[in-house]
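URGENT: need a sanity check before tomorrow's submission.

F., can you look over the DoxX family membrane protein record below? I want to be sure the sequence and structure line up before it goes out.
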Amino acid sequence: MTVLHRRDLGLLLLRLGTGGVLAAHGTQKLFGWFGGHGIQGTSAFMESVGYEPGRASAVASGLAETGGGTLLALGLATPAAGAAAAGGMAGAAAVHTPNGFFNQEGGYEYAATLGLAAAGLAITGPGKLSLDHAFRHVFDRGWMVTTAFGVTAAVTALVVGARTRRVRQEKEGEQEALFE
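Structure tokens as predicted:
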């Protein structure tokens, strides 16, 4: 097996593993599969952690994970897929950051790992064992990486920033109520 074949096989395994986990996690949000809570339960959760409106946040998160994960696994539109999944995981990490790094304490370790793997795949590319390669990289051009990450970074910054402000205002309101 040559180095090129090893690289392509490694990228395939990474895409299938990362994409599969993301897609499964997203279908929990969208459809309630695999023990998930579906749109209704995810909407309530999103609002409880400061993402409003809850339904739009649940749909956006579910689509980023399901769509991004599925496309990553297939190796199709890899820059957009990886950037979307990474953006979704940045939003998840923002919720878990106050709990520290490690997942056992409710930290952001899991979200960060999935997000970094998705981002790495978007930058590296899907390899030859992919639909992008089969379609001659029509949806995997170099400029698409920059564009996908630029758009995702801007949207993620706006959404996470709004959530951070909302959570901060709620905490300030709770503290003021204690002193009244």
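My own read: The radius of gyration is 18 Å. The mean pLDDT is 95. If you see anything odd, call me.
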